[in-house]
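Hello again, I could really use a second opinion on something today. I've dropped the whole record in just underneath, so have a look.
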Amino acid sequence: MSFQGKTIWITGASSGIGAGLAEAFAREGGRLILSGRNREALAEVAARVQPTAHLLPFEATDWAALPRVAADAGPVDVLVNNAGISQRSLAVDTRPDVYTKLIETDLLAPIWLTQLVLPAMVARRSGHIIGISSVAGRIGAVLRTGYSAAKHGLIGYLDALRAEVEDAYGIRVTTVLPGSVRTQVAANALLADGAARGESDPNIDAGMEPAECARRILAGIAGGQREIIVADGGEALVAGMRFTAPEQLFDMLAKEGARLAAERAKGGRPEPATVKQFLGP
């Protein structure tokens, strides 16, 4: 599939996977629309990958503004729903409003943006919707109940949307499930009270580089994959276990949950294990 001359709208484009995708699509000749909350950060990405990119900053959950934002973007060939926020807190401690923010940001915002660009794609009988979910959208990841719920929901929405529009209108729908990627996702993750965590964690620090993640995503798209798992080692293993060995996976997850509960009982802050610790030797 060629992206030469195609208009590609990327949300969450100011850093991480979004910035990596901006660079990758620019190399493929796409015309970029870059969105995020921070115009200066978007401008830095544009200066590096495509100075002529259209910068369209907005808050993903500003529902009243989204129709105007979509109108400003104009007709797009490819929408990449990448903006999101993660979580690092046990369910028993997490405030309800934290769940609201996670669901709105990670599920409702990409759904609403897709709904806004979809009619024009249907009318043209062409287009491509790409949603960045997560391996946590395949498994119930500890410390991420709200995040996992939202990312599971995004997979469900995209799977159902694909069934409705792929053959009927020629619109492609691609779901991406990254594992740990070296970004600020853990540092920006919400704690039980809604505050940002403020520091990374070992899995993210040892994760894949965003440029490599972007390369694999575009390779998967070129190969016609409808769902692309971008993970290595243990993370790829557990993503597959959800279907091949679910009971074993549930047992492993329950043991990790028990470890975190014990940490909480001691008055400490539950911390995620590394993938190696989680899977054992």
In short: The mean pLDDT is 95. Strands lie at 7-10, 31-34, 54-55, 78-81, 127-132, 171-178, 227-230. The first strand starts at residue 7 and ends at 10.
